[in-house]
Design a protein that fits this description.
- This protein is α+β, with helices and mostly antiparallel strands and 708 residues long.
- Helices cover 32% and strands 28% of the residues.
- It folds into six domains: 3-112, no CATH class; 130-190, no CATH class; 213-378, Rossmann fold (3-Layer(aba) Sandwich); 388-488, Beta Barrel (Elongation Factor Tu (Ef-tu), domain 3); 498-608, Rossmann fold; 613-705, Beta Barrel (Elongation Factor Tu (Ef-tu), domain 3).
- The protein contains 18 helices and 33 strands.
- The strands form eight sheets. The chain has a seven-stranded antiparallel beta sheet with strand order 17-16-21-13-14-20-18, with helices on one face. Strands 7-8-6-9-10-11 form a six-stranded mixed beta sheet, with helices on both faces.
- The protein is globular.
Length: 708
């Protein structure tokens, strides 16, 4: 390559390179002179030495500053590491501390730079005669792929009458001809789309696959002992550090048992776990559901079961607090069986382990069960590729910047690696394990905390490491553009209209979340839906219950690509807005056969014209006035929108619809009016309904046909 091109490649001026050539006694005199492999190697080494000396000089300046300035407590060293120098009297002691820390990093950098081999891309071939062509490949990249010198490749191009440099893009046909000159067959990379690394189809060479530790998520009802269990396993006091003994963050920890490693994820609730799943982050291999033997199955236990089932991973039930006098493990078996988790001892496929997180009883049995499931499932990963995985949590530290906890799912992450996390690119500046110890590299299933990313990513964001920072930044920019485009083309998660299209595409199961006003209605609607059979398509009710639709229902629907059916209930405006914002379809009914009819029609692709409900407004009943001729007048205050005479209405009590009718009359002070707006008081009568009470909500709405 020419001096000019080389200067650009190493981010130096042409004059600087020519000066170096003169210093190194290389026979290069002009910027257009060509550098051969020998000259490039010599220059690379010299530049590396100069950069190292520059870095060392900067470190020495920092040490001098630390010694001479007694007013500062912290000093920034390599990779943002902070050294606390609290004593101001012993300057030599300070200097020794700083130099010792620098020496540690020098050793770590030496170890890091041993890993200079090129890690695998996503295309693997056992045939040494096959090389892989990627779209937009440069001459330099082609030389690397063919494993031959750059000069030789450039000469081959020149013999074909093509003047090329290291960064010149080369098309597939020309590259194929060059490859044949070196006895290689060139094949196009058809699987690698680095921009969409969430959906990347990983193709590993079986010979490179190594056993990896299982990733275990602990879930359950609040105060049933999730963190105490983890604390007992880790032999460290996590609970005492949490406010009120309740987990305040997502933690990821790794332990060793019987010479085997196990990674645990401790979540503060199901929302974070669901959010990760909703983003496509299938990080868990095994779910442990902790149930207190004295309390039994509680509301959050049921939610944990729903999420674990939807994640489609093995489940272990840890029956905790068996040391308590009122413990009743048999009751837990029965209640969990009623929730669809049948114990092994009853002929089911779910492991149940009796434990006491407080005394440690049964903990070894639990860990052995985890390793058994891991062995049966043959969990493996390839440490020889660039790392990819998922964000567990992220926080901002005033002195260190953004600290991100990652779970490495495949590959090896190294100090100094260029990474893309979500839509942000950066370089790994610090790499620590869950104990806060500095690492040079981390392998699959290992949780680590890193710095080097300027923006705080969200839990569930995917990350991937790349060969260079330039490459990572290009990927991040492209991902940002695609994200913007996706946002503009936002589409509902799953609507009734989509069912026929999904069935046509080969889906054999449709997920539904059902909420009803009473238990009888819930069972009746659920049974009717489960009996539906349209050309082998199965309706799967992943959660059903009574009461109003909650934010938790929306999260589960989002994570499981489900739609929500409400029977004889009415969600609040806030819930409807959240569902709309997240693209979750909510359908409301008050007649069972209508639910079945519409679902069946949707599956067959014969939906009638759709009418969308348009909420006009709502009012809260504050006082009642009863007149023999008129009936009950509801003295109300309009809280949202407006109330209009003659439109459809519903009366909602504690989130449940108790009446659907029409607004018969509307009065403002003594005058009859057509409508009353938000912030005003009015008198309302409902057609054929007088059993209204104070604090009831009257909702006015109209049906508007949606044009397809």
């Amino acid at each position: 390559m020419s001096v000019s091109d080389y200067a650009k490649d190493v981010n130096k001026t042409k004059e600087e390179i020519l000066d170096l050539c003169k210093k190194l006694e290389l026979e290069i005199k002009d910027e257009n002179d060509m550098l051969d492999d020998y000259a490039i190697t010599i220059l690379d080494n010299e530049i590396a030495i100069l950069e190292s000396n520059k870095e060392k000089s900067e470190e020495n300046n920092i040490v001098d500053e630390a010694i001479n300035d007694d007013n500062l407590d912290d000093y920034s060293l390599n990779y943002d590491e902070k050294i606390n120098l609290k004593s101001v009297g012993n300057k030599q002691k300070k200097k020794n501390k700083v130099e010792s820390k620098n020496n540690d990093y020098k050793e770590k950098r030496k170890e890091m730079y041993k890993h200079k081999e090129k890690l695998q891309t996503n295309v693997v071939s056992d045939d040494d005669s096959i090389a892989i062509y990627t779209e937009g490949m440069s001459v330099g990249q082609l030389a690397k792929e063919l494993n031959v010198g750059l000069n030789l490749v450039i000469k081959k191009f020149m013999s074909l009458g093509m003047m090329m440099t290291i960064n010149t893009p080369v098309d597939f046909d020309a590259a194929s001809i060059i490859a044949l000159e070196f006895n290689k067959n060139l094949k196009k990379d058809t699987t690698l789309d680095e921009t969409n690394f969430e959906g990347l189809e990983i193709v590993d060479n079986p010979a490179d696959l190594k056993e990896r530790p299982p990733v275990v998520t602990i879930m359950g009802h609040v105060d049933h002992g999730k963190t105490t269990l983890l604390d007992t396993i880790r032999k460290t006091d996590v609970v005492s550090q949490e406010a009120g003994g309740i987990t305040q963050h997502i933690g990821a920890y790794q332990i060793t048992y019987n010479n085997k490693k196990i990674t645990f994820i401790d979540t503060p609730g199901h929302a974070a776990f669901t959010e990760m799943r909703a983003r496509g982050a299938e990080i868990t291999d095994i779910v442990i559901i902790v149930v207190a033997a004295d309390d039994g199955v509680m509301p959050q236990t049921k939610e944990a079961i729903d999420h674990a089932k939807a994640a489609n991973v093995p489940i272990i039930v840890a029956v905790n607090k068996i040391d308590k006098p009122d413990a009743n493990p048999e009751r837990v078996l029965t209640e969990m069986a009623n929730c669809g988790l049948t114990p092994e001892i009853w002929g089911g496929d779910v492991m149940f382990v009796n434990i006491s997180a407080k005394t440690g009883e049964g903990i070894n049995d639990l860990l052995e069960r985890i390793l058994l499931i891991s062995e049966i499932n043959e969990l493996k990963a390839n440490p020889k590729r660039y790392a990819l995985g998922t964000v567990i949590e992220s926080k901002i530290d005033k002195s260190k910047g953004v600290i991100t906890t990652l779970l490495i799912q495949n590959g090896t992450l190294r100090l100094g690696d260029a990474v893309v996390i979500g839509n942000e690119a950066g370089k790994i500046r610090t790499l620590k394990n869950d104990k806060g110890e500095d690492l040079v590299y981390a392998e699959p299933s290992m949780p680590v905390s890193i710095t080097g990313i300027s923006e705080s990513p969200a839990a569930g964001d995917k990350f991937m490491a790349f060969e260079s920072e330039k490459h990572a930044k290009a990927i991040a920019l492209e991902r940002k553009a695609l994200e913007k485009q996706r946002h503009n083309n936002f589409k509902t998660n799953l609507s009734l209209d989509d069912l026929f299209n999904r069935v046509s595409a080969g889906e054999k199961e449709i997920n539904i979340i059902l909420k009803a006003d009473v238990k009888g209605s819930e069972e009746a609607v659920k049974n009717s839906l489960l009996k539906l059979d349209v050309e082998g398509i199965r309706v799967n009710v992943i959660r059903s219950g009574i009461g109003a639709i909650s934010e938790s229902d929306i999260d589960l629907a989002l994570a499981s690509n489900a739609m929500i059916i409400g029977f004889n209930i009415r969600p609040t405006n806030k819930i409807m807005e959240i569902a709309k914002d997240k693209g979750v379809d909510i359908r409301l009914y008050n007649i069972i056969y209508k639910v079945v009819e519409e679902m069946e029609a949707a599956l067959k692709g014969k939906l009638d014209p759709i009418y969308e409900e348009h909420i006009l407004g709502s009012a809260v009943v504050r006082k009642l006035f009863k007149f023999s001729k008129v009936g009950t007048i509801a003295g109300s205050y309009v809280t949202d929108g407006l109330i209009r005479r003659g439109v459809k209405s519903r009366v909602i009590r504690d989130g449940v619809v108790i009446n659907e009718s029409v607004i018969n009359s509307l009065a403002r002070e003594k005058d009859q009016v057509k409508e009353v707006k938000q912030g005003l008081e009015c008198g309302i009568t409902i057609e054929n309904f007088n059993d209204i009470k104070e604090q009831d909500v009257i909702e006015a709405y109209e049906m508007v046909e949606i044009k397809k």
